[in-house]
User: Fold Transcription attenuation protein MtrB from Aquibacillus salsiterrae.
Amino acid sequence: MSELTHSKDYIVIKALDDGVQVIGLTRGTDTRFHHAEKLDKGEIMIAQFTEHTSAVKIRGKVVIQSSYGEMRNDQD
Ligand code: TRP
Assistant:
């Protein structure tokens, strides 16, 4: 990511249920959980990827908006 310590893009996560978890995974050789944010229905998290966070795991029903488009995981 050149000299930037975080991406300029944000992802928007909207919880469609109570108890959604947004879990941040560490960057580097060691890939582990470093943060779990709990969202209740209707709550929104706006997040970036940073020097600490390389991946995000989401548990529960959400709508996500990113530069890749909008996706939701509430329909099989
Ligand atoms: N302190 C974390 C970081 O700078 C905060 C964070 C950024 C985060 N993006 C995230 C936590 C995504 C969970 C999910 O990396």
Notes: The chain has one domain: 10-65. The pocket of tryptophan is lined by residues 22, 24, 35, 37, 47-48, 50, 52-53, 56 (CB under 6 Å). The chain has no helices and seven strands. The domain at 10-65 is CATH 2.60.40.50 (Immunoglobulin-like).
